[in-house]
């Protein structure tokens, strides 16, 4: 009808109700050739439809066709009655429906047709299914891909649409454009462990994905080969499918192999999950052959992880020795490097004596002797002799805890009797036995051989008490020679040093040294200048006394340093402040100073004799608790600028330079003891 009214124009689309109906109508026409692959026929074996089939609509009735004809005639008549625009003149014989399609928005009737169930996607998926069926049957294929001795007939157009590599290969002007057979074995063989069979299987999976047939993976090596091939061929989307499959197959037995795959293809989520499995199942991981094939750098990095899920350090030592003994002649030279990451001071003393010191490989290796001597010193003198390697790993039953002892209440009127241990990882407080008999303030507290010592104080200023970690009780030990308070203690060479302080009449130059094996105090070389309320800390084999109140009660900025080798005191670079009521702690060779109602954290490097500023606190504080735990500096309680005790807690992380607020203390306190020891979490 349209062709007769406007010669030379193609008839408008009739929008058949569905593609299968059109094929059926075409098959009925005697003039049309039989279809090579009618869409209404069953798909070849193995090809599954990707979406439910669209229900075939009923055929139009004669009456509906008459209605369409009537509407078309009315539209043509309306177009002849006065439409003078150029578009109307050009379309006056096309009918009202076609005129609306050319001149205005799509009518609701047309919109409704395009919004049927998966109308667009089903059509595209049917085309992909048909194209994949053509590939599997070799119909219309124009190129062959060869891998692992197998040929895969394909369509250049489909390969170019799904692969950036083939799009470039078949582009105009490329010499490979006319190749009938394209080998892809060298590409697939780059995957870890990929042989000819794996290469062919990988190419089959990639082609299934390109042709819309989905992804079917069976094993980790196949997924790795597919991943390598997809990366080289530039097949977008297949990378995520392979990574998801590998994550689902992750186990302790294959975690090392999959970590290599994740590193090779920059799969960050997979690498992170592999790392978690390696840490949590370390004991099982090291039993498998993959561990024995690791490079020295990989073994060292694994042993150094502070979050290894081991209950005992013996498991880490045995893993290191198993790796070395797998090829002892070639690997004995790595012993020192690996043992640096084994926390020998955490071994049971009997195990250390029988299994470590008696080991023939270790006895023959002179480079390992300093590490063995350090461990032995820790057993005798305490964890302070090898602070870094004496620190428990995160998931051991042992952990570093912060012990808070006594102190003054908010107004400074009451002396608190409480002793509590805080585990920063779990943020859990545990009560410990309180100091027996009395309460005190302005005492000194320190840890020696993982026991806590408390000396002096405003009341009973000669007394010294020891909290025994193994016995979980307080024991009274030898008293100070000179009663004192507002003093500090430090540990060096396995002995306690009580430094300076106040005896009620004057500030003291007196220094005393305590030997825990003989339970005796002896007088040591006195300070050059008497001080009280100074910061005292041991670092790099020396004792540093920073600031404090001088004999006249005026705060000073002097730094007095004691060298035990020369048995004498000397002055170092003065502090950038003159304050008292200070606290200091040593962490990895750097001294951190807080207090004196200063809002800054100051640092001092003993090696260079240089002062610096590390960070700013939210508020000034003095007479606070200061300790190092889990590689961070912890600031607990203290007095604020109004003279009241606070319950605030802050941590400073030297690696990031950030100060963070932490959960508050159980009560406000100042002038208290604050010490880090190692304790069993199951106690």
From TrEMBL:
Biased composition, class Low complexity, residue ranges: 70-87
Record field: compositional bias (Basic and acidic residues): 56-69
Domain BTB residue range list: 141-219
GO cellular component annotations of the record: Cul3-RING ubiquitin ligase complex; cytoplasm
Pfam families the record matches: BACK, BTB, Kelch_KLHDC2_KLHL20_DRC7
SMART domains: BACK, BTB, Kelch
Biased composition (Pro residues): 9-19, 31-55
Domain of life: Eukaryota
Entry protein name: Kelch-like protein 35
Source taxonomy: Eukaryota, Metazoa, Chordata, Craniata, Vertebrata
